Sequence to fold (563 residues):
Amino acid sequence: MKVLVPVKRVIDYNVKARVKADQTGVDLANVKMSMNPFDEIAVEEAVRLKEGKEHHAAGTISEIVVVSIGVQQAQETIRTALAMGADRGILIQSDADLEPLAVAKLLAAVVAEEKPDLVLMGKQSIDGDNNAVGQMLAALLDWPQATFASKIEIAGGKATVTREVDGGLQTLAATLPAVVTVDLRLNTPRYASLPNIMKAKKKEIAMKAVADYGVDTAPRLKVVKVTAPATRSAGIKVADAAELVSKLKTAGAL
Amino acid sequence: MAVLVIADHDGSAVRDTTNKTVTAALALGGDVDVLVVGKDAKSAADTAGKITGVRKVLLAESGELGHHLAEAVATTVVALADGYDAVLSPATMDGKNFMPRIAAKLDVAPISDIVEVVSADTFVRPIYAGNALETIQSSDAKKVITVRPTAFNAAAEGGSASVETVTGSDAGKASFVGEEMVKSDRPDLGAAKIVVSGGRALGSAEEFHAVMDPLADKLGAAVGASRAAVDAGYAPNDYQVGQTGKVVAPALYIAIGISGAIQHLAGMKDSKIIVAINKDADAPIFQVADFGIVGDYKTVVPELMSALG
Ligand SMILES: Cc1cc2nc3c(=O)[nH]c(=O)nc-3n(C[C@H](O)[C@H](O)[C@H](O)COP(=O)(O)OP(=O)(O)OC[C@H]3O[C@@H](n4cnc5c(N)ncnc54)[C@H](O)[C@@H]3O)c2cc1C
Ligand SMILES: Nc1ncnc2c1ncn2[C@@H]1O[C@H](COP(=O)(O)O)[C@@H](O)[C@H]1O
Fold:
């Protein structure tokens, strides 16, 4: 079985984004970039499926292909995934920030070429906060989707997925091939070891261009402006609970 | 112009997230219809008809729709989409699950989590964990939008729209296996006027409940948690407040033993009044708190309980 894992290069989750003065976007110059944290979780799960770790049968997956759409430096993101245990990578170079619909169309074209049995991906990128690509990819392929996974079991041509939903957990069974998007509780991603980082340098990354896939990636959304939200100013420290309660009563909050 | 709102409901009644989404739909202009998908959801459809401003209610029922499976919801909505210029849903976990699928089937760029309707084609949405607000204009003929409920007032009750039955799809290559729902008599986290949230400091599930539950009961509050508390198993997953969990904006938010990471702030910084209880005077949560107490929750919370009387 083969799994495809789309990974995105995004602002590091520890960095607080700042809006550019000209309101055209967020300032990413000299900002630390990393793999989208949810995508790390997807890569980790793929590697566990291959290794037969946790509840997975050994060799459930035989090949892990990672794909990223983005700038040249997204190669580093792919290398990180390769160092974690993925087998090979594909970089579809694009200097333009593509919308989820365009990303989903490109990924659908990659799926048509690679024919994976499963696409494992993040539920959300922490820059655009769209939470859309996985669901859209499943729709374009007419595959079932299982989003926000906190547990995945692969057996008998099915993915049985426990999902984090409002009110608790829902389990569903999706016939493979399927798209599964992962949530925070699925696993804790490993750090790549030095020997694995060295090994990853020899793994193949195929360099592609958006034009190679012949899909329509024209933007549908125009960014009119990007502004900073209203800031909250720090209030006061109160001495104890009694003072807190009286302040809250005065403020009408109790 | 006609707008279709996909209702959030529990089978017997619509949740107030639906009323809030109707407000956003009315801001787009034109006629607003509400679609209730489910199984045995007639009474929920009846409550949707009472929302002021709603033209009519559509009720689609099937087995798979009872579990809101994305494939069935998408097929049902796509079959209705010809009659509408925009399809809206609250940005609940359900809405986040099926709306992008609907958008892709319609070849439309979805617009997630809007907090403002500027005009019928222009919207504001938070990005980067709420550290930036993006104003975007859509050139798609149809719009597919999820709405952040906390950013809109609930449309009032008082209407009397009729309920019409439409075909509910049962198709899909995914099937429901089971669910484990957290039962609670407390108010819903998204709708509560007061939210008390606990963090990693609570240390165990037993301690979390021993500290948070009585306080919540005293205040009539909902209970939330940080990711760290949920990851550690102190609280169920749907308690998580933040960028990738629930967004809340109650009149009063009390954070107990929560440091105030960017991702947590993204889910609660629009609360009217924020209180922080933390033993570290430099914890970032104090930068957004209106009232802070520097101290150990083990002494502060019992004092708070008695001060509340
Ligand atoms: C992709 C991604 C998504 C995320 N999404 C979310 C999200 O949606 N929501 C979210 O909350 N987090 C999210 N996080 C995690 C976030 O970055 C923080 O790790 C998390 O919020 C920390 O939780 P915490 O404040 O409970 O724990 P900590 O940061 O460990 O803080 C514990 C606090 O308790 C205080 N404390 C300790 N003992 C006591 C005591 N006895 N009395 C009083 N105070 C005490 C400490 O001073 C400290 O400030 C996300 C992270 C990533 C990478
Ligand atoms: N440019 C990209 N390259 C590769 N994968 C992507 C890209 N954008 C989004 N994804 C994938 O889609 C998931 C959801 O992203 P989003 O819908 O943008 O929030 C991410 O976690 C990634 O797995």
Summary: Chain A touches chain B through 81 residues (CB under 8 Å). DSSP finds six helices and 13 strands in chain A.
